Amino acid sequence: MNKESISPLIKLSSLTKSFNGKNIIHNFNLVVENNQFVTVMGPSGCGKTTILRLIAGLEFADSGKILLHGKDITMIPAENRNINTVFQNYALFPHMSVFENIAFGLKMKRISFEEIKKKVKKILYMMQISKFSRRYPHQLSSGEQQRVAIARAIINEPKMLLLDESLSALDFHLRKEMQNELKTLQRKLGITFIYVTHDQEEALSMSDKILVMKNGSVEQYGSPKEIYEKPKNLFVAKFIGEINVLEAIVLHRINERYIKILVEEHECVFYTNINVLNGQKIKILLRPEDLKIEEINDKDNPNGIVGQILKKNYKGMLLDTEVKTKKGKKIKISEFFNKNDSHIYYTLSKKISVTWKKDLEIKFLI
Ligand SMILES: Nc1ncnc2c1ncn2[C@@H]1O[C@H](COP(=O)(O)OP(=O)(O)O)[C@@H](O)[C@H]1O
Ligand SMILES: [Mg+2]
């Protein structure tokens, strides 16, 4: 087996980078495999662009290493890395036609014109921009310019394509359309895409892996399911999707499967096989879509958290409700809208119980 097929595509080890004496990237470690769609997320200014620029060779690390297929490329300049980037402001060459823009990288390589024509034609077709090949950038819509920018970046068959918020200039519908196409394109090319976005829904649906960053470090790197269902900490839990965080105290373990906890002054039963101690303080994490609302009357002693309906918001398929507990904590619930269900007709301030499926595995942080 050759080295390329056994080593990961790229490995970043203990990378650090400062600008003007200010440390921006700290002890950054990441391993990305070949043929993956990786999404990078994190608050503005956390270092997403800097990481992409370090991978591309547009910046050099102060310390640490970057290996590409096991080969040390830490100090190798961008043009020798075979990694291409599409930036947010995908500046096309204004004085060149679409064809010339895309052909540019091949011309630099001194490939024959016949060969260039063949390759550009293929990419134009793939990106569905064949009919624009003679136009100039100013004669294209932003969506069309975006396609040209991507075509220009993949013509050289890079090992990796980096996309830094490349779709953020597009309107909602066009962005959704391009997102789907990007995923298809990644599969077709069989190369790794590293894609920076702020759109969580998009990240969850299209990525093989999600990288969540904060203050220049990796908070968590994992599959969308891992990130969503097993967030490593509160930051990741809150960053990806909506989540209710409730302070609770473990009362005792009932049996192998269930524990009893005190939350918002209610004794509730939750499913977990993770060891906890009696009296331990925990933070329970409840996704709105794992919760439902149940009607109660005063005699009931529900296995749930009692509160009052504060707000209702119909969102087509979904009904979002906000409930306020006796202690004043707000809880969000998101249920499928069913017009035959009596509780959608509840009036505001009605007393209800927030419950969950008995076998919902409780997520909590200590
Ligand atoms: N060339 C540079 N010179 C000085 N500071 C920079 C430079 N590039 C980035 N920074 C700073 O590094 C931090 C991270 O920036 P960036 O990687 O662009 O974040 P993100 O893409 O996550 O928004 C910011 O505080 C930014 O101002
Ligand atoms: Mg950025």
Bound molecules: adenosine-5'-diphosphate, magnesium ion
Q: Which structural category do the helix and sheet elements fall into? A: alpha+beta
Fraction in beta strands: 25-35%
Alpha carbon gap, first and last residue:
45 Å
Using the coordinates shown, work out and report the CATH topology of the largest domain: Rossmann fold
How would you describe this protein?
This protein is of the alpha+beta class. It contains nine helices and 20 strands. It is 24% helix and 35% strand.
Brief synopsis:
24% of the residues lie in helices and 35% in strands. By secondary structure, it is α+β, with helices and mostly antiparallel strands. It is elongated, with a radius of gyration of 26 Å.
Structure characteristics:
366 residues, alpha+beta, OB fold (Dihydrolipoamide Acetyltransferase, E2P), 2 domains, 6-stranded mixed β-sheet, binds adenosine-5'-diphosphate, binds magnesium ion
Outline the fold blueprint:
Layout: H1 3-6, E1 10-19, E2 22-32, E3 37-41, H2 48-56, E4 63-68, E5 71-72, E6 83-86, H3 98-108, H4 113-126, H5 142-154, E7 160-164, H6 172-189, E8 192-196, H7 200-206, E9 209-214, E10 217-222, H8 224-229, H9 234-239, E11 244-253, E12 258-263, E13 266-271, E14 281-286, E15 291-295, E16 305-315, E17 318-325, E18 330-336, E19 351-356, E20 363-365
Parallel strand pairs: 3-8, 3-9, 6-7, 7-8
Antiparallel strand pairs: 1-2, 1-4, 4-5, 9-10, 11-12, 11-14, 12-13, 14-20, 15-19, 16-17, 16-19, 17-18
